[in-house]
Amino acid sequence: MQANLPSLGTENQSPYQVESRREIIALLRGFKDKSQLISMVINNGGEAFITSVLAVDDSNNQIIIDSAPDHSANQRVVASNVVFFDGLLDKISIQFSANKLQQTQYEGRAALSLAIPNSVIRLQRRENYRINTPVSTPIRCVIPIESEGLLEKNRFNLVDISAGGIAILDDRRILDMTVGKIYDDCEIDLPTIGLLVTQLEIRNSQELTLLNGKTTRRVGCAFKNLSNRTLTAVQRYIMKLERERNARLTGI
User: Quick check: pTM over 0.90?
Assistant: First the structure.
């Protein structure tokens, strides 16, 4: 039976389990073909690493993925009884688990292998699907944080955005991670859309280790008391990102 994955998103989802082997392999190969990164989570969400699918070997029932950034991290992954995976593919979160991973080699470099799962969970975004924001031109979110009686404006990079909220990177770990903590007068400058001012509520957080070995904290925030005008602006921006993404895929 597949275990429940730690929640990595900003909104509630309805799970859909996929058990067709052909479809599972197609989804996994989609991560490889589209170079989509996946979160690899151990210790019930206590530690996470960013990885990617290097190969899907149907005949040997194996997936080959990038190894963790250092030997000790790999040892912890291999020693884990259950490893969870969560990745975004075509606006849909694909989640699955593996009981044991093994260290291996792929094209002369260190890698990890795991069995192709018997089932995956596909979390279909409906009106509130999230979409990744551009890495090449990061979107900034400015959050006022009180320090010694003064409000200081601090900048954070967006990871993704939906009509329900955002995910940001807190590299310096300066945000209060109390679930339900609300930050007022947060500013998000969306290209071609304009400056949005909103309340943000802390919903979840997770420590991530990136492929380069750098660690960061991913923070899921929900919009609070979003006006219809601001919601429309967010939806326009999501549509803009979707059009740009589709243009890249089709080569237009």
Answer: no
